[in-house]
Automatic annotation (TrEMBL):
Molecular function GO terms recorded: helicase activity; hydrolase activity
Classification lineage: Bacteria, Pseudomonadati, Pseudomonadota, Gammaproteobacteria, Chromatiales
Nucleotide-binding among keywords: yes
Similarity comment: Belongs to the DEAD box helicase family.
Protein name (record): DEAD/DEAH box helicase
Amino acid sequence: MSFAELGLSAELLRAVDTQGYTHPTPIQLQAIPSVLSGRDVLAGAQTGTGKTAAFTLPMLHLLSAAQSNGRQRRPRALVLTPTRELAAQVGESVRLYGQNLPLRSLQIFGGVGMGPQVEKLRRGVDILVATPGRLLDHQGQGNVDLGGIEILVLDEADRMLDMGFIHDIRRILKSLPKQRQNLLFSATYSREIEQLANGLLSNPARIEVARRNTAAETVSQLVHPVAKDQKRALLSHLIHSGGLQQVLVFTRTKHGANRLAQQLITDGITAAAIHGNKSQGARTRALADFKSGAVRTLVATDIAARGLDIDRLPNVVNYELPNVSEDYVHRIGRTGRAGSEGAAVSLVGPDEYGLLAGIERLLGRKIEKIAVDGFEVGSPAPRDSANRQERGNQRRSGGEPGQSRAHHARSPSARRNAPSGDTAAQTPRHARQRGGNSNGNRRPVR
Ligand code: AMP
């Protein structure tokens, strides 16, 4: 089934096409027709399933199909999210999917000045994507009138409840018109969610997508503890020794992305950087080269990586952990798409152990930690890998792109979840696995 068959408008189909999406994901297949028919929806879906487009596309369709009535440019749709990051991400999706429509959207969240948000509210907005606290601040100051809301979306409702937003949500609900369409998305169901849904939704379409499609479960995750100044050498080593052919590497800064790409090239690994300072043309070219295999490594910042859709991307490397734990989930969501498997490896310096603990809290589990032989924290600087040249092992015999992924996290390990500080030296398992590869150019593991 295609997006066109779901009944979305030509403008939305063009936007979806621009994103490179060819087929709707399972949640989109189920949710889009229900939302288009005007029904309330209760959907169980985690991040990475395409849930944002599942509510945003039909929402945009309905808003653009029906003329607004009442006062000009009062918000007609409201998406509530638990965090700023999610509001920014959903807001960006609304912008991307609505790029061919004359609808105005605005993100409203705390931590930034109210002024620009007030200004945009005054000029008129069709769609608000907001965190509850800041939205209430604006309401309290009379900056926003929610009396024209036709569609309400609660995104990641379970997290909103976990974060204690239930009273804020109830206050906001009171200011909305009674007659409206309600969509509730939640990764988990609890009694509290049921209660919220019962009070909010009327005869909802109940949608549940298989958990196996979620990034967190199809992606094997691994941490390599390593000193900061050895990260670059370790990355080159992993790419060489693992025969990794398509690796998306995340850095925190644009400057860091540029520098790392340059260093990888010096190490004999084809690389390109992609970030906000690059022109659209340069970004498109880098992505095309990466997809075609002309460039083996794409180094990206979080912002630049949003919206990247690379089919069956086998490897993601966190060269630096993100400051915001949720970004980790988004990063690893770049691999293991649509049920295919992927490997996410994080190179973690001692200064990042706090960030790692935050990520593990968010995931609700520990990530396996393995120190790579010769790159353990505290070991002398390893032999520099700058002079290692690839000797024609770009094309591996019989190699599926995904074949080079590390299978480490799925194998039993005595060192599973060992504390970062005392992990024993060990050859990365994917490297050992590749040792028997018929390709004689595989560099021996140090
Ligand atoms: P979400 O679950 O909304 O966070 O989406 C996860 C990722 O899937 C986002 O990066 C989207 O760009 C991407 N995505 C959404 N729908 C599709 C689709 N139909 N095909 C491929 N990628 C998609």
